[in-house]
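Subject: design request, 195 residues
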């Protein structure tokens, strides 16, 4: 039987929007707001924040969020997210080869638990059932990958080649990269009375 784990890469520094991942959404640091949403999905065994920042770690302790110490070299702007995910899996010591990993972006606070649940159900029960290397990406209305979430098998996280078994899930979320995005998303969340 496989378990499902969430890894959330949370850097402190951001080039385009200062301290992006801890800007407030409904009076919570953004990554904490996202954490509180996704922890409602009971099928998730554990949520891990990967961070290099003392400030983020302190917030994790304050809000009782599990975190993994990320080396500073894995927080540089040119580092691919896959390297961060692989590091977190290795450091966790409890994620096994038959488990499912969900990568969640903290700067996509519009993420909905219903979407994540449906995407996970599709991934587990319909997408290439016999394959142990597969992944599902979230796509927006412009048919562009929205990195709000990505679901993958353990082996897919470690693969060195292009994926051939990929599914998509459509969810029109906005990623926050600048102040304009932040104010727009914050207003939408408040309007929709989201937690």
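Subject: RE: design request

Done. Sequence follows.
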């Amino acid at each position: 039987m496989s378990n499902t784990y969430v890894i959330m890469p949370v850097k402190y520094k951001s080039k385009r929007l200062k301290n992006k991942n801890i800007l407030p959404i409904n009076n919570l640091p953004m990554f904490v707001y996202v954490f509180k949403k996704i922890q409602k999905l009971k099928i998730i065994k554990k949520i891990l924040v990967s961070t290099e920042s003392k400030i983020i770690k302190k917030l994790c302790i304050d809000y009782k969020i599990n975190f993994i110490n990320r080396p500073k070299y894995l927080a540089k702007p040119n580092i691919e997210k896959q390297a961060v995910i692989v590091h977190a899996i290795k450091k966790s010591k409890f994620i096994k080869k038959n488990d499912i990993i969900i990568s969640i972006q903290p700067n996509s606070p519009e993420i909905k638990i219903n979407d994540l649940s449906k995407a996970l159900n599709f991934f587990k029960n319909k997408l290439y059932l016999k394959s142990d290397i597969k992944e599902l990406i979230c796509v927006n209305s412009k048919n562009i990958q929205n990195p709000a979430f990505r679901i993958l098998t353990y082996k897919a996280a470690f693969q060195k080649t292009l994926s051939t078994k990929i599914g998509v899930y459509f969810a029109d979320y906005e990623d926050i990269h600048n102040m304009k995005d932040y104010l727009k998303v914050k207003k939408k969340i408040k309007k929709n009375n989201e937690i």
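The radius of gyration is 16 Å.
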